[in-house]
Structures are given as structure tokens and as C-alpha cells.
Amino acid sequence: MNHVMMSMSHCFLAILLFLLFGGHHAQAGGKQRPPNFILIFVDDQGYQDLGCFGSAHIKTPHLDRMAREGTRFTDFYALAPVCSASRAALMTGCYPPRVGITGVLFPRHRMGLNPEEVTIAKMLKRKEYATACVGKWHLGHHPQFLPTRHGFDRYYGIPYSNDMDPKKGASRNLDRAWMEKDGSPWNVPLLRDDVEVERPVRQETLTRRYTEEAVRFIRTNAERPFFLYFPHTMPHIPLFVSEEFYDSDPHRAYAVTIAEIDWSVGQVLDTVRSLGIDEETMVVYTSDNGPWLGMKHHGGSALPLRDGKFSTYEGGMRVPCLMRWPGRIPSDRVSDGIGAAFDLLPTFAALAGVSLDQDPLMDGVDLSDLVLGRGPSARNELIYYKGANIQAIRRGPWKLNLGRVQRRRNRDDLVIPPTLHHLPSDLGEKKNVIDAHPDLVASLHQRVREFGEALKATSRPAGTLDSP
Question: Catalytic residue positions?
Fold first, then answer.
């Protein structure tokens, strides 16, 4: 009897100790710990440029495994077909014109994302998250616009695209740059926080050094909630890889660049697993816009979608997206629910238990029901902006491309008529059914007018430098 009582006492003590101190899942006071978020954001990767999205020649075993262990979203969008505007939307949960970033920022620009804007990092800071940005920022390179002014504790990366700030008289022959394996035509800096630590950055080392920095951040902050924003420089041109992945054939440059990014994802996921925080960590992988088709074999593919970067056809703005969170996000699932990059801020807020009620107006919606497999998407509509202008609208399965006149240098203007497409049956936007649905077309046109006017009336300015 005493032996039985002693065993029960030991069992009770073990349970008590587990409840008080056990695992990563509990916080002081018995509250559930908010999840970690890792957001991997690649540059100019096309819809088809993963094995799990249909690529026949690009091998991505780690990302394919991520798809099997999580959910692949087939109808996920960037909010602009170019870098800076897309990133502004991602960070703020807003359409780009709402926050005053509508195009691409260059080193000559004296502007950036307004420091007053609420970003994903600032929002998560309310729950005392550790935050880091590792990679390409491209929302203003002046000190007051860098990640450390937008809620990130740490920053390590390049401030704008890796083809900017070329040296005077430098050749921009991409095949030659690939063969020589150096970044000599470009004079891009590498920053740590707001201090320049290397110029020009050795671009062939970027993916590997970013990955080492990301892994170090995860290990350092494994005992507390963290947000890692990991925007890769690649596969934006010029393409570079480390020696381990190098192939002397420039026609293989894009494929091996994606292969090294895939390796990087594997390193991140392996680190999360080894630290025992797999079930507390949501990982998202997506791209800032479609592929740069004009770069030919240095660019990717958006097939079966139409067009690519710079375009508001599906190939320019529909991007690959994977989400993984063991035990929370259903595994080996494919979802065609509509979602977009600016929905991540309100989704992360909901999952972390952060209220947005007092924040400035946002356009993103909470997708947690869709992401966690609890219900349909909260998004049924998407506006396609190019610059400050609306070029298309999607509602459910339907997409209306608005008519416009395209100015062309030394040639007659190109008149582009409006077209209506049923996307589930016409991914390539080839079959115009506009004449068969006049009421729907009229409704969509009215929605575009009303939304555009409302957004202009409530837009906020970008940040600018004081006049010298």
C-alpha cells in the first residue's frame, strides 16, 4: 500500500512539475505561448518554379517536403508586379497606394516606407516578440526607413535590389557575370542594422550567409516567441550561388539558384525541428511577384499563367505559396482559397492574439480559418494595382482586366480592350467571355470606381527625407 501511495505521489509530482515548467508551450501564468512566425519571401520567383508547383527541371526537395507537411495555396497573390510596392503591402497589410509606395525604389530616391506605419514586426512587438529581418529590404535605404525603424530588433542584408548601383561603365552581360562568379558590375552594400559592413557585397555568398544568420537568430530566440522575416535577394538578377551549387552553364543559372534557396529552406526547417519548436512555428514561403521573363534563361516561369513580372495578368501577381505548422495547418493539402500577401499581417495578429482595432485602416483580412483548415477564405475579392492605377479585379472565380491605352515609344499607342475570364477554367486568360456577362462586368466596373475613390480619400503618405 505504501508502495502504491508512493508511486501515486511521484506521478502527481511529475504532473505538477510538467504543468509548472514543462515544454515550450506554456508561459508564466499558464498562458499558451504565441506561435513563432518565419516568413520566407523570395524575389521574382515564378508560379511554376517549384517541383510541387509543376516544374519539370527545378528540383526543390525541401520545399516539396514542406508542401507535403503543410498546405500548398494555388490562388495566392502578391499585391504588385514589382518589388518595393509588393513589399510595402506585405509589411503593412495595405494596398501599395494606401501607404504611398507604388513603384520601385532606387538608390537615388529620398523616400521610403513611412516610419509611422504599423508593420508585421511592430504589431508582434506588442506581444514581446524577438524580431529580425535577414535579406533584401527595398523599402528605403536611408537610416530612418531601414528595418530597425520598423519594429525589427536586427537587420542583416542588402537595402535594395542586387542589380542597382552599378559601377560606372560596367558590363551588364548576365551570362558573363555568371561565368565569372563575381558581382563586379554592381556596387551593392551589405548592412548590419544600419551600418554598412561590406561594399560591394560578395553576391555569391549571400544565400549562404543569410541562412547562417537566420539559423543563428532562431537558435538564440528558441525560448521566446520570434518573428523572422527572411526576404532572399535571389532569384532576382544577377544570379549568384555559392561554390557548392555552381554550374558553369549560364542556362542552368536559374535552376541552381532556386536549388540553393531550397537548401536554405531545409536548413531553417531542420533547425526548427532540432530545437523542438516545430509545433510552435508557422513557416510561410512565397514570392514578391512573378518571374522576370525578359531575362530569358536567367528568369523563371509562371506557366500555366499568363505573362510575368511588371504585368497584372496572373503570371505577374499570382505566386507560389506554402504554409507549414505541424499539428495546426493541415498536411498534404491543396487549397484554392483566395489569399494575398497583405493578409499575412492580420492573420499573424489573430494567431498571436494581437488586436488591430485601434490601428490605421488596412486592406488585409484574417485568413486563419482558411490557413488552419477550419473554413473558407475570408477573401473573395482582390484589386490588382499597377503603380497607382487599378488594372484588374477578381471576384470569386471571375477576373475582369480593365481596358486601357498603353503608350509605346516611337510606335502607335496600343489599345488593350477589357476582358473577362473564368479563372478556374481559363488560367492562361485566353478566353474572353465579357459579352456573355454584362451584369457582372457592370458590377465589377462599379466596384473598381468606388474602391479606387475610397482608397485615394484615405491614403497615407510615404516617408520622405527632410529637405537639405
Answer: 83, 138
